[in-house]
Amino acid sequence: MANTLTTQVIQNGPRNLVLNIYIAGDGSGDESATTLVDASAYGASDLVLESFWSGLSGFTADLLWDATANVAFLHLPDYDVRYAPDKVDGIPNNAGAGKTGDILITTAGLGNGDKGTIMLHLRKK
């Protein structure tokens, strides 16, 4: 078996992409640089994180920009957290060589019965 990562597309327009991602652990271990968002599948070559909400229970997660050397850009703790800036223009993809525009996830402590939700509001580039 494998952990479950289920993506629900809330909005996929020419500029904005809003995804709701549900994670359920089955005891098979942590995710390690697993593709969470495939930018090209949504018609984007790159993405900017505009805002997010996450609620994780029993584990933590790091989001990474996919590249030859992946770049971590966000740590999600084991509780509810929200990021919705009003004075900055989001978190741009600052990965270097080999960047794909994709977002990866690495978890720590994801065990059997652990659950979490991540909602991402992304801007397409």
Globally, the shape reads globular
Question: Which ranges are low-confidence, i.e. pLDDT below 50, for 5 or more consecutive residues?
Answer: none
Q: Count of DSSP helices?
A: 0
**Beta-strand residue percentage:** over 45%
Between the first and last Cα atoms, what is the distance in angstroms? 35 Å
Largest sheet: 6 strands, antiparallel
Quote the average pLDDT: 95
Classify the secondary structure makeup into a structural class: mainly beta
How many β strands by DSSP?
A: 10
Order of helices and strands: EEEEEEEEEE
* Share of helix, binned: under 10%
CA radius of gyration: 14 Å
Task: Summarize the structure in short.
With 125 residues, the protein is an all-beta fold. It has strands at residues 4-12, 16-24, 34-37, 47-57, 60-65, 71-76, 80-83, 91-92, 103-108, 115-124. The relative contact order is 0.35.
Secondary structure elements and pairings:
Elements: E1 4-12, E2 16-24, E3 34-37, E4 47-57, E5 60-65, E6 71-76, E7 80-83, E8 91-92, E9 103-108, E10 115-124
Antiparallel strand pairs: 1-2, 2-10, 3-9, 4-7, 4-8, 4-10, 5-6, 5-9
Features:
10 strands; 125 residues; mainly beta; single chain
Can you give a write-up of this model?
The chain is an all-beta fold. Helix content is 0%, strand content 54%. It is built from no helices and ten strands. The mean pLDDT is 95.
